[in-house]
Amino acid sequence: MSAAEDLAQMGHALQLAKRAWGATHPNPMVGCVLVENGVVTAEGFHERDGGPHAERAALSSLLRNPVAGATLYVTLEPCSSAGRTGACTDAILAAGVRRVVVGATDPNPAHAGRGYDVLRRAGVEVVTGVLEEECRDLNLIFNHWVTTGGPLIAAKVATTIDGRIATRTGDSQWITGEEARADVHRWRRLFPSIAVGAGTVMTDNPRLTARIEGEPEWCPVRFVFDGRLRTVLDHRLPKVYTDPFASRTIVVTTQHGGEGYMRKLRALGVGVWVFESPSGRVPLGRFRARCASEGIGGVLLEGGAQLISRALAERQVDYFFGYQAPLLFADDKAKSVLSGLRTEKLSQAVRLADLRRSVLGDDGLVRGRVVYPEKLQVDETLFSLG
Ligand SMILES: NC(=O)c1ccc[n+]([C@@H]2O[C@H](COP(=O)([O-])OP(=O)(O)OC[C@H]3O[C@@H](n4cnc5c(N)ncnc54)[C@H](OP(=O)(O)O)[C@@H]3O)[C@@H](O)[C@H]2O)c1
Fold it and tell me: Do β-strands 152-160 and 319-325 pair in parallel, antiparallel, or remain unpaired?
């Protein structure tokens, strides 16, 4: 089997894995292809948490044992411990497969490499690291969850080239074009939850659902950060509290919110998480801990400027999506997206690592893991209560 063939088949397995986009939490997406005499004769993917793993799905669809010389391609290292569905290494050995090609190694340090050892000890040829970066990138949320025990908190912003999110009069819809916006909906479909601040709810009244052509509207858990419950004061309540997905909304607030408004929200079926906080702002670290205890593996912070700036200043943004439109406002009074840090030296900048770039129509997307400098200087005046 040539290296080019291995790459092509792994690409195929990756496409299969993506069929379960957003459906496998807290498990990873995994795709698998079986090739006999150069022909794909079986394929499978992990469809949902608790369902068969990709390797078992592929092997069982064949309804016979693979022929001698067959190769199994799988995007993630086969599991070697019998969980709910039995070890995949057992299924591979029982089927008599003698060559296995793997994309990414199991990110769990307690398991990493064990699947390879089990297979190699049984005489199977194991090739690792084929399309490794792509296979690892597929499971950003899962990888973070198994290595830290908490959610991947990602921030998304859409800006002009000069880093602005709205003009001086607040005109902001839409800075990016259709393809970039469709991409955001794809990520919304992947993340188990989305979060926005009260300002965004009051200005934009967003639905915060994933609307993808050809698919039913999907609603992740929707968090609204509103320390004083000012989104509830109005007689015209925002969509996220009144639409058919209202029970998927959780308001993140403090004791300053007031019992009456909390009751009003609960009566609408909206969840309320109350944190004790003298400042009226919920520390993102405590929010993260609550998400971890509730089994929420990922949060996409979609805005606005204040919520994301604060999360960054608190070192609570793990991943960043920066959409960029080919526009320049060149206007000091135009609204910029991030503030609150005193970055005096380049060495104090927050950086992105493991970069991925894409072009979406006229717009660009740069995304990556957030790497904080040793010392972050926070300008607290920017965070005082308005
Ligand atoms: N271009 C983009 O990517 C993008 C994305 C989303 C939104 N936007 C724009 O951003 C604008 C809104 O931004 P914004 O900065 O005014 O609003 P925001 O960040 O959505 O909301 C700020 C408010 O949310 C509450 N809040 C934030 N963090 C909190 C915390 N940790 N705990 C409790 N409450 C918290 C606070 O309410 P209190 O002050 O009452 O405590 C705060 O004033 C809109 O114009 C929207 O269109 C742009």
Answer: parallel
